[in-house]
Amino acid sequence: MARHQLRSTLRACIRGGVALSVAALLANAARAQDAPAATGIEHGRYLAIAGDCVACHTAPGGKPFAGGLDLKTPFGVITASNITSDKETGIGSWTFQQFDAAVRHGKGPSGNLYPAMPYTAYVKMTDADMADLWAYIRTVPPVSQKVVENKLPFPYNIRAALVVWNALFFDRTPFTPDSTRSAAVNRGAYLVEALEHCGICHTPKNALGHDSSATYQGTSLQGWHAPDLTNNDHTGLGTWSAEDIVTYLRSGTNRHTASSGPMTEVIVNSTQHLTDADLHAIAAYFKALPARTVDVPPPLPATNAQMVAGRREFLVQCSACHTSSGQGVANMIPTLQGNPAINAKSPDSLLNILLAGTTGPATAANPTGAGMPGFAWKLHDDQIANVLTYIRNSQGNAAPAVSAADVAKARKALGAQQVVWH
Ligand code: HEC
Ligand code: HEC
Ligand code: HEC
After folding, report:
1. Tell me, what's the pLDDT at 331?
2. Virtual CA dihedral for 302, 256, 282, 348, nearest 10 degrees?
3. Is CB count within 10 Å lower at the N or C end of the chain?
């Protein structure tokens, strides 16, 4: 119980004429510290959602927080731990200090944790939030599941080597609000930098897997491209209003696009559950990022051979849904016109969507997300290359051409099928 609460309780007692000894109050306060207040647990649950702990700490089809999900990093596979309250295989016997050391400082019982666990972001969490998060995590029902965490090849399997990584890259500066920014932008910065860790996917990494200085400028991961989130009109969020960002993070779709792949998971597990005020804070944070100028390449001419063939393919295969102008159907079939994700230098997400198809996000705000079928079985590598080159260089877009070799490579990496129908 905080001191001011104690004082106001005392005052209330005196006003009500109830004689309560200070000693009894102090005893109550001590008990309250042993068993965290329900509001602390509830707030901790919200923080776990904002930090998206469940996304990594749950195996496909597995129990929440029981671990076992393999994270593919450039150095090999790291498996997320069981963080349920099971005493043998989870963290049920841990103290707050041990939990804090792992979550904010990357120190586990058997040495340094791999930065695949975003302690580099969580280090910015406040002490009070950390206490509430722990109060909630302790209530997660025990699940007995032994997780072998470290399957990395030599030399990456040596946890001690991470001392060097931490010395080079681990910035332990706590979050400090910037007095030149509005309260909303500061709240957004806290949510994005300390909890949601959007940069883990959207910021390009250096050779040792740490964020480069190109913050939020977009990068590829696991067969997807997480687009540029900076304020520029070509590849970034320059044309998106704050309200567009809010709608996207709440429902998975807006007037510009619909989410797919890893971003759908972020929206379904995490952002759709944030309060309206917090979503607006995140949007305010991104809209306050400095505008960035990017080189816009001239679009390929309509007479280019790939463009001619691609346009034909588009009219036959795609226009029934996306319409011949590429405008689509509001809140159902995303528009392809002036679409920053299509303008991204890397076509990785587009290759993924075209080969494997995509099911739209099913969120509370948009319960029946529309889907797009995959074309791997139907279109040859050159046909997919042509249609992607066409949508990347028409309808207000401009981006490098896609080659049949790019498609062949993605087909193999994604394990997508070969053409079966002609
Ligand atoms: C991006 C994926 C990811 C997210 C998000 C994530 N974790 Fe982790 N976490 C991991 C991985 C991977 C490990 C194992 C790292 C290792 O073995 O070095 C881990 C390890 C841990 C450990 C150490 C467990 C042990 O037995 O050593 C704790 C505690 C933990 N995470 C708590 C959390 C909490 C709480 C959150 C949310 C606030 C969270 N994690 C979010 C990936 C993640
Ligand atoms: C696990 C990786 C991952 C995390 C974490 C993540 N994103 Fe994404 N995001 C992606 C990928 C991949 C895409 C591209 C797929 C798509 O268009 O849906 C994407 C797409 C987007 C888009 C659409 C951009 C466009 O031009 O179409 C926005 C906006 C976005 N993310 C914002 C965020 C914000 C804000 C956060 C933090 C709250 C976040 N993302 C966290 C991977 C991630
Ligand atoms: C049956 C209807 C349908 C057909 C046919 C179709 N699409 Fe789609 N497409 C969709 C839907 C619905 C989405 C949004 C899916 C989601 O929510 O993830 C989508 C998404 C996309 C996206 C991602 C847009 C973004 O903003 O992230 C691209 C690119 C795309 N389609 C291109 C194509 C191309 C090229 C073809 C033809 C080869 C095609 N589509 C055929 C329905 C269709």
Report:
1. 74
2. -50
3. C
Residues 122 and 52 in one domain: yes
Report the separation in Å between the CA atom of 201 and the middle of ligand 2, taken as the mean of its atom positions: 8
Q: Is 198 in the pocket of ligand 2 (CB under 6 A)?
A: yes
**Residue 119 lies in domain:** 40-169
Total-model pTM? 0.90
Final residue before a domain boundary, out of 169, 200, 220: 169
Residues 149 and 95 both lie in one domain: yes
Q: Which atom of ligand 1 is nearest to the CA of 114?
A: 18
Nearest Cα residue to 80 out of 63, 101, 59, 64: 59
**Residues 353, 224 contacting (CB under 8 angstroms):** no
Confidence at residue 159, expressed as pLDDT on a 0 to 100 scale: 81
- We report the CATH number of the domain holding residue 255 as 1.10.760
Q: Of 256, 287, 318, which residue is a domain's last?
A: 287
Report mean pLDDT in 10-residue bins for the chain, 422 residues.
38 34 39 61 97 95 94 83 96 97 94 92 96 97 88 75 83 92 97 96 87 92 94 95 97 92 95 98 96 92 98 97 92 90 96 93 81 94 98 97 98 93 65
Cβ of 246: how many Cβ atoms within 10 Å? 22
Same domain (yes/no): 19, 44: no
Cα(151)–Cα(20) distance, integer angstroms: 59
Residue 34 lies inside a defined structural domain of this protein:
no
pLDDT of 162 reads 84
The number of distinct structural domains making up the chain is 4
Strand partners for 219: 226
Q: What's residue 371's pLDDT?
A: 87
Within 6 A (CB) of ligand 3 lie: 257-258, 260, 317-318, 320-322, 333-334, 339, 341-342, 350, 353-354, 358, 360, 369-373, 375, 387, 391
Å from CA of 187 to ligand 2 middle: 19
Q: Give CA angle at 86 (85, 90), nearest 5°.
A: 85
Q: Are residues 20 and 70 in the same domain?
A: no
